Task: inverse folding
């Protein structure tokens, strides 16, 4: 059933300890003491390095829930005090430059890129004579670097481009690069990964490693993001109209025959059904107090719920800032749709026997599978699954004037799995995006989908008018809000090196 490999457990401390960057106010320059030939001497060393690079994915579920799901019309979390970072995100606050999550996300992604760059900088036939293994390790590192840079431009737009390890002094001379230039590296990295990664791994110990199909799925998402309707001149959407490039990649995944929809929607997220036929790439977690558990699960449920249900060292959201699934999203589900009942917990009883009126994401929570504390949930987190491939294909077909019959078949297949037996026809682009919203609730895709589609401003203003019962969310939403603020400490490192994104 598990996992990335045993290295994830036994070597995690060594890999992550060795791979941590030198922390200073030059956080923008992710330099590591491991970046010398003294460490990378053989294949085993590179596998350890890759373990550290994969370990950087641990923050992915949290980042994309806070910065995509909470930002969108899926979650209503204005807060009563407004002091939590995610309340500022929910409310479209313009003071985000000082928010801790802006800094931790920026630094975390650059530390991950440093790890990948350090691996790539040390690869040579001298230390890795096996050409096949050398190419695979290079491809895994490039896949991860491409993924991390894709996150950076989706969150921040223009970012400094480091394609090799640099010194702190060099970093002080490297400005933010145009998004198109960063995309150039991302696409080259993912194309290399497609050409040099296996379609699948035969060893159970390699579960969770990037495959060529994972790279295809990610590159298709990249092309579709580039191709959408541009709202921000320095954001991730460029209006490149590369739908056919995305379709080629998506069809290669579909035609491989390796993946399928799981019959029961709930089984995608079952603790005893990980790495199932729907998963193309996910993030591997382990429970048991090993330090590699899925902390992300506790970012959804309320603290009072956790205490009343015996979750050890409860954690969860604070009483002044619940992350409530929006009324609008709940109303969009048909009565026979199984996805909302499985994904959302509606109301709960606290430790004092009081009924609390709230709705929160529960699709990752199984009270029969608790770890030693709130950081120790076992469930893997899906980054790319087959339903996403199918619905991306429907979207790309819709945008490129493709077959309406295929679009309808795809959407009806997804709806059928959700328990909706009545088919629909002449499915529109807006209907595809709404189906994505219902299918991927809580999976961190919604804000990215809204930005890519060019619908973000209109959808959010309409949603705020009906769902913002607390009157906390700014209605002055503009194209500036399509990306986030550059962290203030990055601006302070060297005056004039970076400019703040407009609107912050």
Result:
């Amino acid at each position: 059933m598990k996992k990335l490999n045993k290295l994830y457990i036994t070597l995690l401390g060594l890999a992550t300890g060795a791979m941590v960057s030198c922390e200073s106010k030059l956080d923008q320059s992710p330099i590591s003491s491991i970046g010398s030939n003294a460490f990378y001497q053989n294949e085993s060393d590179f596998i350890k390095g890759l373990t550290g690079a994969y370990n950087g994915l641990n923050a992915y579920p949290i980042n994309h829930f806070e910065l995509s799901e909470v930002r969108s019309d899926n979650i209503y979390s204005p807060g009563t005090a407004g002091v939590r970072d995610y309340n500022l995100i929910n409310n479209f606050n313009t003071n985000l430059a000082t928010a801790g999550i802006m800094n931790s996300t920026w630094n975390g992604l650059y530390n991950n890129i440093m790890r990948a760059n350090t691996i790539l900088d040390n690869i040579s036939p001298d230390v890795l004579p096996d050409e096949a293994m050398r190419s695979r390790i290079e491809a895994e590192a490039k896949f991860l670097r491409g993924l991390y840079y894709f996150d950076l431009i989706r969150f921040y737009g223009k970012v400094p481009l480091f394609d090799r390890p640099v010194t702190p002094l060099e970093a002080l001379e490297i400005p933010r690069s145009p998004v198109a230039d960063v995309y150039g590296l991302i696409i080259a990295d993912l194309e290399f990964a497609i050409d040099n990664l296996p379609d699948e791994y035969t060893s159970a110990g390699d579960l969770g490693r990037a495959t060529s199909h994972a790279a295809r799925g990610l590159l298709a998402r990249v092309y579709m993001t580039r191709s959408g309707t541009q709202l921000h001149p320095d954001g991730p959407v460029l209006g490149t109209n590369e739908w056919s490039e995305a379709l080629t990649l998506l069809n290669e995944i579909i035609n491989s025959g390796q993946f399928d929809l799981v019959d029961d929607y709930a089984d995608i997220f079952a603790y005893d059904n990980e790495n199932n036929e729907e998963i193309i790439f996910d993030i591997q977690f382990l429970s048991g107090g090993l330090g590699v558990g899925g902390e992300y699960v506790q970012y959804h449920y309320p603290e009072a719920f956790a205490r009343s249900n015996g979750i050890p060292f409860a954690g969860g959201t604070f009483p002044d800032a619940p992350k409530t699934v929006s009324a609008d999203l709940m109303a969009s589900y048909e009565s026979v749709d199984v996805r909302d009942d499985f994904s959302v917990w509606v109301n709960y009883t606290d430790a004092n026997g009081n009924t609390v009126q709230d709705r929160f994401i529960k699709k990752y929570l199984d009270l029969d599978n608790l770890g030693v504390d709130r950081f120790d949930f076992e469930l893997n987190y899906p980054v790319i699954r087959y339903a996403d491939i199918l619905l991306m294909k429907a979207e790309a077909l819709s945008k490129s004037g493709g077959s309406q019959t295929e679009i309808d078949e795809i959407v009806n297949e997804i709806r059928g799995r959700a328990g909706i037996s009545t088919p629909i026809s002449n499915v529109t682009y807006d209907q595809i995006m709404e189906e994505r919203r219902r299918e991927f609730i809580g999976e961190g895709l919604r804000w990215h989908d809204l930005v890519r589609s060019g619908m973000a401003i209109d959808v959010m203003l309409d949603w705020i008018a009906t769902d913002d019962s607390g009157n906390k969310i700014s209605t002055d939403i503009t194209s500036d809000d399509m990306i986030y603020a550059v962290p203030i400490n990055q601006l302070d490192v060297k005056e004039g090196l970076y400019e703040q994104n407009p609107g912050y």
User: Anything to note?
Assistant: The chain has two domains: 43-291+380-461, 296-361. The chain has a mean pLDDT of 92. Residues 73 and 462 are 10 Å apart (CA to CA). The longest strand covers residues 355-361.
